[in-house]
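Before relying on records like the one below, remember that each one covers exactly one chain. Contacts with other chains, cofactors or solvent are not represented anywhere in the record.
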Amino acid sequence: MLEGKMVKIRFRRYFPDQKQWIFVGKVVEFTENWVTVNGKGIVIFKGRKEPVDVDQEPRMLVIPRENIAHIRLLPPDFDLSNIKIDIRKMRMYVKVPGAPDTSIGE
């Protein structure tokens, strides 16, 4: 279903002070219980001068589906090596050329 597609995955937060974690990449395998994605992680830190940290190198991640808050499809040509973050008022977005930007947090 999602195999071979570029996606943004937002992980569930289980308590209010938990850092927001997003993973952007290409789905390698999508099963009933797991999603395997090759991509980069994005972590949001509240109260820091540089509130967003993006992984420098891509990695393979196997994610339990119960830990996923939502998945958004991205264009197939989304460039993982050039992730740009835009901050508008209180919200942060990943710039998505050729499509609406995708929210990653506040």
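Residues 20 and 44 are 5 Å apart (CA to CA).
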